[in-house]
Amino acid sequence: MAYFAAVTYPPGSPERPLRVAIVGAGPSGYYTVASLLKAEDLTVSIDVFDRQPAPFGLVRYGVAPDHQKIKLVARVFEKAARDDRVRFFGHVTFGEDLSHAELTACYDQVVYAVGGQTDRKLGIPGEDLAGSLSSTQFVYWYSGHPDFMGLDVELDCETVAVVGIGNVAMDVTRILARSVDDLATTDIADEALERLRHSRVRDIHILARRGPVQAACTPPELKELGEIEGVAVVVDPADLDLDEASARALEDDRPATKNLEILQGYAGQPPEMAETADRRIHFHFLTSPVELLADESSGDGEAGDGEAADRVGAVRLERNRLEPRESGYLAAVGTGERRDLPATLVIRAVGYRSVPLPGVPFHERWGVIPNQGGRVTDPETGEPIPGEYAVGWVKRGPSGLIGSNKPDAQETVDAMLEDLPSLPPVDDEKARPEAVEELLAGKGVRWVRFEEWERLDRLELERGKAQGRPRVKICHVEEMLAALDARSDA
Ligand code: NAP
Fold first, then answer.
1. pLDDT tens digit sequence for 134-160
2. Tally of domains within the chain
3. pTM of the model
C-alpha cells in the first residue's frame, strides 16, 4: 500500500525516459533514431521494429549490388543501432505480431518509416501478363529479399523492355547488361546470379515517355551505362532535337544539361560499336507503352489453376509529343503513331508506392500517410493524431536519395520534440521496456535482436570472403533463424 501519491515524471526525463517505437528499420527509420539520440536534454529509449530479420531496408534490399559504396551508409545506422538506448526487433510484422492498438498503448510516440514496398501501375492492358514485372519485384529479387525468392524471371530471351528513365530503371538496366563475371564480385543474391549466368538477353530497350531533358535519372547513373564492358548504348540523334519548351527548361537545369551531353556522346558513337557489342542498351524518347501483347505461342489464353499463364511477347508503343501545362510541366501526350516492339520480359520502373498499414490513415491517391511535417493527420478532420508520426517515403512519396531522409527525419523529430508536453499519457506498466517483450513472447513471436543480426552479418561476410565477394546474402528467413538457433545451441 503506498503512503504517498505517486510522482509522475514527464516522458523524456531521466526518471521516465521517452518511449519511442519506429516501424521500419530502413534509412528513414535509423536517421530518425540518430536524430533522437542527438536531442539535448532528452532521455529516450527507442525500439525499432521490422518485418525482416535483417535491418537497413533499402540499403540491403534496394541499393544495386554493383553500388557497394552507397551501402557504406549502413555504418551510420549500425552506430545508432548499437547505442544502449536503442533495441532492434527484427522479424516482427506490424499489424500481425503487434497491432496498432498494442503499439500505441506501449509507446509515447510511434513513427512509421516503412518506405514504399510496392510499385506504381501503368494502367494498360496486358500489364499483368507473365513476364511483366515491376522494378520492385525485380530489384527485391536480385537483392535477395526473402519474399521474392523464386520469382519467375524469364531471361531465356533476347529482348527486354524497361519502362521509365529514373535511377531505378538505370539500376535494372545495368544488372541486365553487366557480365556475370562482374556481378559475381558483388553481393547479388545467389539465385539471381545463377539465373543471370544463363541469360540470353542481348538488347535492352529503355522507354522514356517524355524527352531527354525530362529524364529523371541523374548524370552519374546515365554515364555509368556507357562504361559497362562489352556494352554499346544506342541513341537516335533525332531523339535529341529539342522542342522550344525543353530547350528553355534546359537553361537553368545543370543535371539535365549534363544528361543531354552524355546522350549526345552516345548518339555520336559509330554504329559498328553496336553491331559488335555483347549487349546493347537502346534509348527511346517520347515513347509510351500502351499495351502489352501476349506471345501467341505461350499459355492457352486461360490462366487457371495449374495452367500456364499467357506470357508477354511484345510491347505496343505510342509516339508522344510534349504539351505544356499551366504549371509549366511538360506532359507526354500520345500522337496515335504506334508500333510493336518484341520483348519477352518487361520491367516497369515507374516509381514506388507505399502500402497502407492496418489502423493507420492512408492517402490512397498519393500513396502516403497523410501528415503535416511528419505529424500523422486524421483524414476526416485534418488534425494531427497525438503521438503518431511518419518519416521517409511513406511521409513524402518515393523521391530522393538515401541522404534525403536525413533532413526529412530531422523535421519529424523536431515535431516529436515540440509535442512532448502535450502527449497523451501512457500507462507506466506498459511503458516498461520489458512490456513489449512480454507481449511478443506471449504470442510466441521469435524476434531477432541486433546482436543476433550482427552474427548473421558476420556469417554473410565470412561466406563472401571465401568467394571474393563483399558478402553472400542469406535470402530465406527460415535459413536466417536456423543459423541463429544453431549457433546459440553451439
Ligand atoms: P523516379 O525517379 O520518379 O522515375 C520514375 C520514372 O518513371 C520517370 O522517368 C517517369 O517519367 C516514369 N513514369 C512514371 N509513370 C509513368 C508511366 N505511366 N508511363 C511511363 N513512364 C512513367 O523513380 P525511381 O526511378 O523509382 O526512383 C525513386 C527515387 O530513388 C529517385 O529519387 C531516385 O533518384 C532514387 N534512386 C537513386 C539511386 C541512386 O542514387 N543510384 C538508385 C535508385 C533510386 P516522368 O518523368 O514522365 O514522370
1. 999 999 999 999 999 999 999 999 999
2. 2
3. 0.94
Q: Is the CB of 183 under 6 A from ligand 1?
A: no
> Taking Cα atoms as reference points, which of 238, 234, 315 lies closest to residue 269?
234
pLDDT of residue 297: 79
Which of 297, 319, 351 terminates a domain? The answer is 351
Q: Is residue 38 part of a domain?
A: yes
Q: For ligand 1, say whether the CB of 217 is within 6 Å of any of its atoms.
A: no
Q: Which domain holds residue 154?
A: 121-351
Residue 461 lies in a domain: no
Sheet order of strands, 330-342 included: 287-294, 312-324, 330-342
Give the Å distance between the CA of 215 and the centre of ligand 1. Answer: 9
- 323 CA to middle of ligand 1, Å? 20
Residue of 59, 350, 352, 401 to mutate, ligand 1, most atoms within 8 A of C-beta: 350
Whether residue 299 is found in the same domain as residue 193 = yes
CA distances to 137, 175, 182 from 197, in Å: 19, 12, 11
Name the stretches of the chain with pLDDT < 70.
1-7, 299-309, 487-490
333 lies in the same domain as 398 = no
- Nearest protein Cα to ligand 1, atom 21: 164
Only one residue has cell 504539351, namely 323
Question: Do both 376 and 417 map to the same domain?
Answer: yes
